[in-house]
Amino acid sequence: MWKNPSEECLTTATVRYFQRHKGEVNSCSVSPDCQFILTCSDDTRIHLWEAKSGSLLKKVTGHTGPVKSCCFSPNGTIFASSSLDCTVRIWKVDNGECLHVLTDHSKSVETVCFSPDSKYIVSAGWDHLAILWKVQTGQKCKVFHGHQDTIYCSAFSTNSFYIATGSWDYTVRIWSVHGDRTDRILKGHNGNITCVCFSVSGMLASGSWDKTVRVWNQWNGSLIFLLTGHETWLRSLSFSLDGILLASSGHDKMVRLFECENGKCIKVFKGMPEITHTCTFSPKGTLLLIGTRGIYESD
To answer: What stretches of residues are WD repeats (predicted)?
Structure first.
């Protein structure tokens, strides 16, 4: 991957550009086999792309409002999406069929994610609630209460036992999938929490409007690193599969790449023409996808 420890810049001349959405790209996801890319947008659509060629394979419609989040299941057979229309939808990858429409949220659903075993999803949003659902049946399993403001982001731990949620109440909460209480409340950010993600090594990263990334020990809630360098709000975080690297993107039109061993920034991707709304590593860790009004793919 990137072996040069010095900070470098990548210009738009060396990235591939996909432009078919007619609104901001809010989220993107790579299939487990790295064959497909999923993007969702304010244009109410979800696009399925062939990763190698960049060809648009399918436009998935059904949501009646901006689609805020999308993700593939770890087994690669289905994907989920959440929307301003207050619904979560589960879809089949092969034909775009909608399997379930989940309707228990009362306001915009900002985030949805799968458990690593593909059995559950969690969704959360403007109603201050996080809801755990069973994927196979679409049944609601559990509702997590506690945040005092919008929940903007969520993530499962790599063992599927815990869920992290980040809120505009400036806190990150870690919940037990098999309980109904908050295991830990992480405080320290001075702005809305916009992104969270777990690593395989037991780290939990959170990004905020306060322009910082905080990396926590998920087991005891202690702060490991405070990462700085972004000039404006953070929008997205992604650990590489091996947990060695952490990518962050924000409103400053850049993506920063950190080493998780020492918290050092080893690379800066610049030259995006617009705000970088989302970044995500491919499952194999060889691609980093960056979403704005289109989607950029970096080799």
So the answer is: 18-59, 60-101, 102-143, 144-185, 186-217, 227-268
pLDDT tens-place string over residues 136-175:
999 999 999 999 999 999 999 999 999 999 999 999 999 9
Helices within 68-209 (DSSP H only) = none
Tens of pLDDT, residue by residue over 29-84, are 888 888 898 998 989 999 998 888 888 999 999 999 999 999 999 999 999 999 99
CA distance 236 to 266: 18
Rounded to two decimals, what is the model's pTM? 0.86
For residues 154 and 239, give the distance between their C-alpha atoms in angstroms, rounded to a whole number: 14
DSSP letter, residue 163? E
pLDDT tens track for 229-279: 999 889 899 999 899 999 999 888 888 999 999 999 999 987 666 767 678
Nearest CA to 71 among 30, 108, 35, 101? 30
In DSSP terms, 56 is beta-bridged to: 49
Residue type, 74: P
Please give the domain boundaries of the chain with CATH numbers for all domains.
Answer: 12-298 (2.130.10.10)
Q: Tokens 């980093």 appear where?
A: 288
CB 194 within 8 A of CB 166: yes
31: tokens are: 């299939």
Q: How far apart are CA 248 and CA 257, in angstroms?
A: 7
Determine contact, residues 265/258, Cβ cutoff 8 Å: yes
Give exposure, 275-295, as e/b (b: 16+ Cβ within 10 Å). Answer: bbbbbbbbbebebbbbbbbbb
| Dist CA 5 CA 200 (whole Å) | 22
Residue corresponding to tokens 């559990």: 142
